[in-house]
Fold these 3 entries.
Entry 1:
Amino acid sequence: MPPNPILICARASDLRSELEGTLASAGYRTTVVGTPADAVASMRDDPPDLVVAEGLAASGAIAALRSGSGTGDVTPVLVVAPARDVEARIAFIEAGADDVIPAGFARNELESRVMALLIRSGKITPDAASRHAGAEVITFFSPKGGVGTTTLAVNTAVLLAGGGSPAPARQNGGPDLPASRVLLIDLDLQFGQVATHLNLSPRYDVALVASDEAALNDPELARSYLDVHSSGLSVLAAPSRPEADFRVTLDQVQRILGLFQPQFDHIVVDLGSRLEPRTVWMLDQADVDVFVLFPEIAALRSTSLLSAFLAETTPLRARSHIVVNHIFPNELLKSRDVENLLRVKPAADIPFTEVDMIRSVNEGVPLVIGRPTSPAALAMRQVAQAVIGIQPMEATPKATRKSTQRRGIFRR
């Protein structure tokens, strides 16, 4: 989180402490005062990027705070209003407040509103917000379609959200996964099937939130566009009609990510298999990129071409993982062949399980929920562990040293 200076003005000491603790822990530089007069005096010495104020009885106080820095710039003001007092909230907005949050707010709601105001006022760009704020971004992509990218993205997201049934410790291959706040975004905007895999009938989708300018400036309104799966996973679905893809711009994708990142611990993004500007930007922004392939020559060639393209245009800063998904019963190449050809050890091998996998997709029940102890579900658990940095228990120090000496295909 960029260290934007924020001035807190509140009469009640407990509220001052709550605001200061929340914003300081989010990485902001805070100054705390008790009255609007003290706030204006402080602003002249140290102009803040934002004022969070409580107890403003006079409408003139908001105007004084907005212009209090004396630099000629307008400072956005977020007012903390009495809980359940709708009239007070309206009055503050009419008096010039940039946003109002009711007392008793949740920490993530405060962080989201602060981030939205900083973005709106130009104090921080959506690009910077998405790179530094909140959630770890995990992308799933394959340069070749039909290899199970969506299946792996969905099951990984469910596991990170704490929705997968626990696997026996002796089979799990590592520590269990802590439950987190997880958002799954389907950015395969023409034919994305995340909702199908989760048996969801989404009310809204990426294209709708992208076209709503009010939602792009209001984290709370944007969150109303999400569906929630029974596992606790939040989902932003792909459009129901493929032509909606052409209306979603890169700028809108950047703003969507900037809005949601402060609200979650992990954002998992299904990028599908189409390489275009939104995909390249998301791969570059991610903390972890997972590349899915089927062990055959065409898929390996596509992956090599992708690696060369990214090396020339957008060298990735993210941690990169290869996952080999055996979608057919007969192996054309062994996993060790993939490892030798790409010079990187796959994070996981997903074994062929035709009946379980087809049933999982058709019923809309992720494999890690419906068949958590199946070999494929256990392998998917290894993927989830890898993306958050949990090492498999069977990895020996020698093997670890050997793997770190390899030059991964997506490393610079």
Entry 2:
Amino acid sequence: MSAKRVLLIVGGGIAAYKALELTRLLRKAEIAVTPILTAAGARFVTPMALAALAESAVRSDLFSLEDEAAMGHIELSRSADLVVVAPATADLMAKAAAGLADDLASTALLATDKRVLMAPAMNVRMWLHPATKRNLAALEADGVAIVGPGEGAMACGEHGPGRMAEPEEILAAVQAALAGEDRPLQGRHVLITAGPTAEPLDPVRVLTNRSSGKQGYAIAGACAALGARVTLVSGPTALAAPPGVERRSVETAQEMLAACRTALPADVAICVAAVSDWRPDTVFGVKLKKGKEGPPAVRLVENPDILATLASAGAERPRLVVGFAAETGDLEANARAKLIRKGCDWIVGNDVSEGAVMGGDDNAVLVIDGAGAECWPKASKTEIARRLAAKVAETLA
């Protein structure tokens, strides 16, 4: 990616602050950034901050004598390998859909002959408005790629779809777009499990674990960015499904196994979920309360082994089955033993003894297959996901 260049158009909206982090991530990935800051965008981020992170001058004026003499809007719009609009406001999307060109940003979009990637960000009512839907359909018909938006609380106090995708998601989409039209997982079906399971004891208590689902969701997003059709079977998390990913929400291990079975056939199964090994034998119909007789005796029974089941699925066994091993000691020995015991093709082991991995944003893993082991040093879960998706694509190829 070191020879790649992005023209980043920053629209006006509170989500513009995420453009600064996106710029930092792009430069960290050795992707050059030339920013265009709209007049509205400059109300939320300063040209100085954007220029410092991009290590490049910020353009904003269509009629700047100096800029037009040095690099006119035509050359500016075509010198990059990809045009990224983040945030893509309702106004910018409408202008691009209609072919309007009344400022530098909209003119660059109309004049470019490169691919365009937009990360929409707006109020939920604006996103759901028929006009925005029409504009979105027109842009997609014109070949514009869309990442997000997500769903959640907004700065305006409302809740729903319209939140700009997180910078890490946009970076993954940028990298996939820059990798070329031949997306290596195009036409492949990838089944991924993520998050914890929650095994009920009574109407208010469950047996669960600290998994946040972040690593599994990141892998789902990375595979989708490489063109795969992704089915994400997820336990309870607070995460939004990555763009282009079909999520099937479950709670218990039995529900997760059933959802995985109905998702087959698949080319790849990646079992990232932290599935509870046991569940209470009896689920009480009322909330258990303290009493003179002391706490109730709870008998545990084993849950189904989802990874082993998928690895021995007969004619429907995915070509590649990948498991995860969260360990608190003897990482390589325990991971290798799990690889053999489960019958899968790869095991991705990680040490969770320090408590910073489960729920955190970073990971360090040991990838074990029949050929040996690869140690991937500590990196963001997004980067680990990108590397794993690339390894999957290379193996299937």
Entry 3:
Amino acid sequence: MSETIHTLTDLLEKVSSQRFIKAPPPEDLGLAEPLAFPFLSIVGQQEMKLALILSLINPNIGGVLLIGPRGTGKTTAVRSLIDLLPDVLRSRCPYGCLPEDITTGDFDAVCPDCAQRFGQGEPLTISDRVRLLELPLNSRIEDVVGGLDERAALHKRMRINRGILARADRNILYVDEVNLLADDIVDAILDASAQGTYSVHRGPLAATYRARFVLIGSMNPEEGHLRPQILDRFGLRVVVKGLERKKERLEAYQRSIAFVNSPRQFIKEYCEATELIRQELEASRKSLPEVKLTSQAENFGLKMIQELKIDSLRAEITLFESARAYAIADGRLRATPKDIRKVAPMTLRLRRSEFIKAFFSSRAEEEEEIDRILTSLKRRPSKPKRKTNKSKRSAA
């Protein structure tokens, strides 16, 4: 027969004295913490690492394209930049108002709320770490530029969600297998990277977003060529080959296995050096506006571009901006011809087109033929005009 509980006090005492089964542990949701392979632990590949570092120091370089076969560490190197990314000032305003808008213009250049904050001495920006955003290969155009909010549509409302390009503003956008992207997505990236903004139209709704990002891409040339339009948008072009020395390949194997077996411990070994280089990159980025090119460096760079017969003016931009970034990374405020020599291969390769060369060659032959005909016609004596009977009678 069960024990009878007569009062509420008895019930409370009875329940308090019982031992209950402990709550089960929370369900494993399968989430993983992103742990990047340390940038400083990458073996070899000096040009690839230098190109990525320069793009962090100077966004005006125009990004980086890594070209090479599978398994050469292209994606690993890009993802390892997470711990090196600098801080950037982001606007606190949804309209992107910045203090320089007021200093270079007036209070009409910002929204009324930001004008009031600026007048009261409140900051218009906050400091935030630059982020690395990856563009999935299976992305739709709505994912890239933005589309209608499906949740809002269920409530009979219309609203545009920001796309990946808008979220990449003042960040780094990484596109793996960039040569396999759909044409409409490539066109959207081209427009956004060229203008720094892009517009979205969805029915009666329209919005314009800022998209000032550093573009980094990687590709395997075995899987297809890259459209010339987007190739021209990449400032630095690095050909990534496999490690040739057996000692380096063995070291790369040992480090990769150590990272897989104990990633936190492996990252900890490089933590101090990683933070040190991040601070140095931050300082270099802030001092970059003070770096000037010497006249010798300018003449040397222009002569190289002229002898290579490169048509695109982006060659000068990338070459000179890379030289400035290399100089400040070396602690100098003057970029010399030595800096031009150091960055020239990665800035000038793959800028000549055999099609364009053949096109201009055929046009040159045509122009020569036209000039020859014009010259021959000019030298021929003109025949005198014969007077008609009518003109003779008129004279009489």
